[in-house]
Design brief:
- There is one protein chain.
- With about 130 residues, the protein is an alpha+beta fold.
- The protein has a single domain, classed as Ribosomal protein L22/L17 (Ribosomal Protein L22, Chain A, Alpha-Beta Complex), CATH 3.90.470.10.
- The protein has 5 helices and 3 strands; from the N terminus they run αβαααββα.
- The chain has helices at about 1-5, 20-30, 35-40, 50-65, 115-125, and strands spanning about 5-15, 75-90, 100-115.
- Strands 1-3-2 form a 3-stranded antiparallel beta sheet.
Length: about 130
C-alpha cells in the first residue's frame, strides 16, 4: 500500500511524434532523479525532447502541489509511451495515383516516485 501512495504521474496526450522516436528519449531518463532528467532533456537535440521535458516538469509540479513531496527526492519510476491517433494524408503521384502519408501521434506518461531510502540514509547520518 505504501508503494501506491508515493507515486505521482503526468500524462501528455496527442504529442505530435511517433512512439518509436519518443521511446528513444524515455530510455535515457528512466530511473534517473527528476532534476537530472530535466537537465538531460534540456540538452537533447530532438524536437520532441521539449514535450517530454514539459511532462516531467508537470509531474514534478503535481508532486509538489498536490502531495507535498520533496522535489529533491523524486525520481522517474516509469516513463512510457503509447500510440494515439494517426492522421492519414496522401501525396499526389504520377498518372493519377496517390501514396499515403501517416502522421502518428502519441500518448506520453511519466510516473515519479519519492525515494524514501535516501531520506532515511540522510537522517541516519545526521543523528
Amino acid at each position: 500500500m505504501k508503494n501506491k501512495e508515493n507515486i505521482v504521474k503526468a500524462v501528455n496526450r496527442n504529442v505530435r511524434s511517433s512512439p518509436r522516436k519518443i521511446n528513444n528519449l524515455l530510455k535515457n531518463i528512466r530511473g534517473k532523479k527528476a532534476d537530472m532528467a530535466i537537465r538531460d532533456l534540456s540538452f537533447a537535440r530532438q524536437r520532441v525532447a521539449a514535450e517530454i521535458k514539459k511532462t516531467v516538469q508537470s509531474a514534478i509540479a503535481n508532486a509538489e502541489n498536490n502531495n507535498q513531496y520533496d522535489i529533491d527526492n523524486l525520481y522517474v519510476k516509469e516513463a512510457y509511451v503509447g500510440k494515439s491517433i494517426v492522421l492519414k494524408r496522401f501525396r499526389a503521384r504520377a498518372k493519377g495515383r496517390a501514396s499515403g502519408i501517416k502522421k502518428p501521434y502519441s500518448n506520453l506518461t511519466i510516473v515519479l516516485s519519492e525515494n524514501f531510502k535516501k531520506r532515511e540514509e540522510t537522517h541516519g547520518t545526521k543523528s
